[in-house]
């Protein structure tokens, strides 16, 4: 695996995209110690101080259709959760579709970006930000964010975690390719899902509504049971769950 390390960069997602445009091979990884313009989902930023966190983005060159790409984010979320759980022994959980939480606070964020035509993927970049050794956050996110160090009191070696996550991702990616969907990891993903069996509020639909989360289906949609007993699959791109 090709690894590109940057002591400082604007965003590893931008670096990985650039690697993609320059012809870097499938699996190339951009890692930084610090980001000056870390990007989060929905146009938000990602706090990226030096010396304590993991900022990494993997470049993938899949041959499947662009419509399958969103499932890769769940493959990465599951792989990261599995690896962190193994390395720390903590109850690491996934908050659908792709946040990772520990003790109800956010530990990992994932941002997937794709360059594609209608029927062809040029490349996919999956960026992962993991709060490892930071001991505090800005006031803005202090109530909702946490780090492995804050929760366990332990300082972890970042390179060990990265290697472990890559190992899990490689295996789960292969499983994903075999079926082209999440059927091979669905049950294990659902076991780590913090929303499972809980009431969730579905936002973004015409009328926001309350429902019981049942777990993901093979496409990564969240199955929910509405109050009238009917079941529905909600799609991550269209709704957000609170
Ligand atoms: C989120 O909003 O939850 C997603 C955050 C993703 C942050 C990571 S850090 C490495 C990569 N580079 C970025 O600029 N963003 C992602």
Automatic annotation (TrEMBL):
Example of a GO biological process term: protein lipoylation
EC number: 6.3.4.15
Single annotated GO MF: biotin--[biotin carboxyl-carrier protein] ligase activity
Keywords, sorted A to Z: ATP-binding, Biotin, DNA-binding, Ligase, Nucleotide-binding, Repressor, Transcription, Transcription regulation
Top-rank EC class of the record's enzyme: ligase
GO cellular component terms attached to this protein's record: cytoplasm
Domain named BPL/LPL catalytic: residues: 1-177
Catalytic reaction(s) noted: biotin + L-lysyl-[protein] + ATP = N(6)-biotinyl-L-lysyl-[protein] + AMP + diphosphate + H(+)
Claim: Cell membrane is one of the keywords in the record: no
Binding site for biotin: 11-13, 35, 39-41, 106
UniProt entry tagged with the keyword Kinase: no
Protein family per UniProt: Belongs to the biotin--protein ligase family.
Job description of the protein: Acts both as a biotin--[acetyl-CoA-carboxylase] ligase and a repressor.
Name of the molecule in the record: Bifunctional ligase/repressor BirA
UniProt source species: Schaedlerella arabinosiphila
